[in-house]
Amino acid sequence: MLLKSVNSKLKPNVIKLDPIMKPHLHQICLYEPEIPNNTGNIGRTCVGTNTPLNLIEPLGFDITEKKVRRAGLDYWKHLDLSIHKSWEEYVSQSSTKNFTYFTTHSERSFYDHEIEPNEVFVFGPETRGLPKSFLEQFPHKCVRLPMPGPVRSLNLSNAVSIALFEALRRHDIHSRL
Fold first, then answer.
1. Dihedral class, residue 141 (left if φ above 0, else alpha if ψ from -120 to 50, else beta)
2. Domain range holding 124?
């Protein structure tokens, strides 16, 4: 039986047992997310794929906001959620140091990226993306989602879903369910 960590404003760092939980292949990290509906939708996707969600403060909303819960529907209570005060705190507490940074500024396509187990997919805020310092410090770990159309970027929730399901597809997760 595996442990499932849940972190919320009401019951921080509560551990509960989840007998049907399967091991995590990846994690999602949202760096300073701004839009509650996106975070709620991403949370729902994470529940559906058994993927932990890490949020890096400051958040552009209160995590208990109705919009977050509405977007996550009644699945929010099943989310393996951790909220971190800063990027530095998250990195120091993370069990993996294998981060992949999603940005529209990378030349490298995510589809050319070798996805490894226990990889953390890091996404930036909706209106400005990841800080330039991330991109400069880890250019070899930055990837983009190819977009042939004339758009600047995809909706954050859609981008997370594309990355997560591509990773699951490559690891042939459907054959193990």
1. alpha
2. 26-172
> Which CATH number does the domain housing residue 76 bear?
3.40.1280.10
Per-residue pLDDT of the chain (177 residues; tens, 9 = 90+): 233 344 334 333 333 334 344 556 899 999 999 998 899 999 999 999 999 999 999 999 888 767 776 766 678 889 999 999 999 999 999 988 899 999 999 999 999 999 988 899 999 999 999 999 999 999 999 999 999 889 888 999 999 999 999 998 887 755 555
User: In terms of C-beta density within 10 A (0-12 exposed, 13-18 middle, 19 or more buried), how is residue 8 classed?
Assistant: middle
7 lies in some domain:
no
